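# nightly structure sweep
# worker-07 picked up a monomer target from the shared queue
# config: single-sequence mode, recycle default, output format = C-alpha cells
# input follows
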Amino acid sequence: MVFSSMNFLFFFLPALLVMYYLIPQRLRGGRNFVLLAFSFFFYGCGGPRFLILILASIGINYICGLFVSQKYPLKTRKLAVAAAAILGIGLLGWFKYSGFLVESINGFGANLPVPQVILPIGISFYTFQGLSYVLDTYRGDTQPQKNILKVALYILLFPQLIAGPIVRYVTIEAEIDTRQETLREFSDGAVRFLFGFAKKMLLANALGEIADKLFNQPPDTLSLLTAWVGALAYTGQIYFDFSAYSDMALGLGKMFGFHFLENFNYPYVSKSVTEFWRRWHISLSTWFRDYLYIPLGGNRVSKGKHMRNILIVWLLTGLWHGAAWNFVAWGMWFGILLLGEKYVWGRQLERAPEILRHFYTMLLVIISWVMFRSETFTYTLGYLGAMFGLSGRLYDGQGVYYILEYWPELIFTVIAAMPLKHLAAQFLEGRDGPAVTLYVWGPKVLALGLLAFSYMKLVTGSFNPFIYFRF
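# output follows
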C-alpha cells in the first residue's frame, strides 16, 4: 500500500482516523495500540510473508536494547550491540546483497548458484532505524524501553516505515507517551500531506514518464538534447518523488501528534556538493555521520585516515541504496567529490561567483543521477557520452517533443525546487495586513485545489510507486 493510492486515501486513512480519534486522548495506550495495529496491517499489505521478518527485527532490537543498559557490565553491553548489528545487518545483507555477492564472484569464473531472494519492502530503513535505538541506548542517550509494544510502534509506525525518513528513537520517545494532538497540528499536517501528494502526482509522475521512456532506449540512439531532457527529468523526478514521500510522512506524523525531523532542505539550490549532502536525505546522512563516520574518527584524525573515513562512508552509502556496481560507482563518485572540495579545489570554489558554483554543483549532481538511474555501469557511460555529444547528433524531434509536451510540468518543477516559502516568511516577518493573511490561509486553499488536480491524476493515471520503495 502506498500513500498515493485509492486504498490508502479512501479506506485505510479514514478508518484509522475514525478509530484513533474515537478513543479519548487520556487513553494514550489505546491510541497507540490502534496506531500499531494499523501500521502492522499497512506493512502486511505490501508483503505479508515479510511480517515475520520485521517482527524478528523488532524482537532483536528490543532484547538487545535491554542488555545495553549501563546497569550491565561493559562486556555484556558490547556483546548486545554486536548481536544487534550482526543479526540486523546480517538479515539485510542476506535479503539485499546475497545475489549481488554471488554474481560478482561468478564474474571471476566461479559457477555458484545465485540465490533468488525477494527484497522486503523498506528493510534498509527499518534496519537502520532499529539499530539506532540500540546504539543510542548503549551510549546513554536514552533508557531501554521495557514495553515491547512501544519499541514495535517506534519501528512499525507506518508514516516512515517504508521509505523514511529514518527516525531516531530519541526524537519521538517522549511523544509515544505524552504527545498532544491538536486541531492546528492536524491541519498543518494535512496541508503538508496534500502538498506532498501533489508533488508526487503532478510533478514526479510526469517527470518519471519522460525519464522511463528515455532511459529505456539504447544511449547511442539519443541526441545530445534528448539525453539532457532525460537526465533533467530524472533529476526532478527523484527529488520530487522522494521529498514528496517525506512530506507525506511528516504530515501524517503531525496528524497523529508526532514530529519527525526534516529530510530535505531544498537541495537543488546548493552551491557545492558538500552543501548538497547537508540538504539531501538528511536522515541518512546524519545516520552515517553519527554511527559510522564519527566512530571511525571523523575529521579529527590524520589526512590519510580522514580520506579513508570519507571513502568508507560513501562506499557503504552507495551500497545502502542498491546491490549493484552502478550504486557503488555512485557512492564513490560523491566520496571523491567531497574529498576534492575538502582538499583540492574547495577554496577556489568558495571564491567563484555564486551562479558558477551552482552550475558546477548541479552538473555533478545530474551526472550522479544518471549513474543512479542506469541499470549497468556500461549504460551509464553510454548515456553520459550522449549527453556530451558523442552520439554525433545535437538534437532531434524526440527531445523537442518532450519539452513541448511537458513544458508546464518542467516550469513548475523549477519553481517548486526553490525555497519560495522561506523567502516569503522572511519578507513577511514582523508585518501584518492582507499579505500575512494570504500567507496563513493561502497554502490551505492551495492544498485543496492541488488535491482536486492530484485526484484526477490518480484516477486517470497508471500506478507509479515511490522510487525509494526498492531500497
